Structure formats: C-alpha cells, structure tokens
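Protein data:
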Amino acid sequence: MSRAQDLFDRLVQGGEAEVLSFIAQSFTEELFLDYKRSADDGSGVTLHNRDRANLGRAISGFGNSEGGLIIWGVDCRNDPTRGDIPTGPIRIQDPTRFKSWLEQATSGLTIPPHDGVRHHTIPQGFVLSFVPSGMHAPYQTVGEQSYYMRAGSNFVRTPHAVLAGMFGRRPQPDIKSRYFVQSVPTLVSSGVVKTQISIVLHNYGRGIAENVFLNLRITSHPGRQCVIQFQPSEEKDVWWGRFALEREMHLITRSGYPLPPEAYIVPVSLEIILQNPIEDNFSFEGSCGALGGETWRFEFKSDIADIIEAFDPLSGIPPAAAEATSAGERFNKLFFKSIANV
C-alpha cells in the first residue's frame, strides 16, 4: 500500500477526530499530504476558481509523482523551523456539495484526465481528495498548460529533462477487480439455495501484466449450516496458489502467462450455499495487482437482513417457473445489492 493510500484510509476511518488530531499534533505537509482552505469555504454556488486551480495542480503534481492526499477545510501556514503546519480547521460549509463540485471538476482539469482520483466527505466540514500515482502520466493542467511534480510540501513545475524521462518510461499494467454473478440462484433442495459470484481481474493499464495476483479472505460467514466454497480456475497451468482454513486464498499467475491491456481473466469463483439458520452478514475482502502496478483493494458485503429477505421466498417448495424467475431476480438485487448493475 502506498503512503498516500495509507493516509487516505486512516482519515476515512478516523473521520473528524483524525483530522483534528493531525492539526493538534502539527502534522506537517509533506511529499504525500497537502492541506487546503477553500477560497470561499464552499459558500458559493459553484467551485471557486482558486479551488479549481489548486485541485488541477494537485492532480498533476501528485499524479506525476508518488500520489498524495489533500485535506480540504484546514488552514496551513509556514513555520520557519517546522515547515508548513496546520493552524486550525476552517470548515467547508456544505462538504457533501463541495465533494460533488470536486467530482464534477476532476476529469476536466488535466490532460489526460486522471481516472484514479477519489473524493470523500467528512460530514463535520472536511473533504478528502486522494490522487494516486497516475498510470497515464505525465498529466498537464488545462488552464496553465503546465506539468507539476510534488517536491517536499510544494507543487513545482516539472523541468524538461524530468518530463522527457517520464514520457519514455515503460507503460504500466493496472489490474482492478470486477464481479460476475450467475443469472439466478438455484434451489438445491427444500430450504437450500445456491448462488455463485466470480472474481474477474481486468487489465485497464497500457502495459502487459505479468505475475497477476489475487488475495481473497472471507471476513464474515452467514451461518453454521451455510457453505462457502472457493472454485479455482480450471486453468491449472496458469495459476499457482494456496488455500488456508477454507476462508483465505492466495493466487498468482505462473511465469509465461501475461495479461494484455484490456484483457481479463477469472481466477476464482465463490459458490455460496445458504440454509437456515442465517446468523450473520456475508462479506469478503481482497487485493489484486501485477508486477510493476499499483495494488487494488476491494470488498463485498451482504447484510444479514438482505440475505434473509432474499433467501426466504426461494427456500420453500419450488414455485411456478415465472414466480421462480421473479424470486431469483429479487434475490440477486438484495443479496448482491453492493454490486452495481446486477
């Protein structure tokens, strides 16, 4: 995990208390962290031009470097002995609206657009902007037509020699996960319902991916009578890996099996057999990536209430065909609610 990703996750989890802790401890700006006070504290009817320019420089600078994080809603001043330190919160008036403005502006601030930028609202008056190291660098700001890099706690225009080197670097892979869900669940027997979800790894980068890997761990099991089974790919000559305690697996492609740009591969499916009692949520988390690329982290969760509501109509005597199809579609919408377009 990158330093920028670590800071982002820490602040997302800690919320307002963690932001105030950064301020109280005089956590200085650094290579991966930048504080920004909004030009109008988010009180306008649209994103202030100064905020737009600052975001554009940050996307270019962090994206052309090792990534970084902006905390919006914090005043920062230079201390000659300690560097740029936060002096106090200057809260965003409507952080949800401010986040929406940032999201709308992001894709139009650099050439090419940086599709990895993420924004997060802290409801008490702060917004986080996470900019990972870019897969399609170098990024040029649209207004100034300048290329930036992060140097210490500042964004500086990139010298020509450095920029030339960036243009010549080898294209990198970018592995991210997607899901594939079987069309409808099946009733194995009275009171026993089976469904399946497959993990799909897609190379969105411009480089060929080698040593593609997947780590997967079940973090919550729906019940003592339920069964969760890993169904690994039948391409045994492609994958090497191991399984641990029936709840964890680690896979990596063997040498000589590259994944081209825009191609995908399916390393594993999870077969899910449900029967009463349903006692807990069902969830898993994982990470994936490839040699030379960033690690992508993901998670899936189905709440116990949704599982029960999805399971009950299918668990009895098989209904008529039309009713079964309707119940199956409803099952998918509830059980796989956290996945879009199921």
In short: The chain has a mean pLDDT of 90. Helices lie at 3-24, 49-63, 95-106, 160-167, 304-311, 321-335.
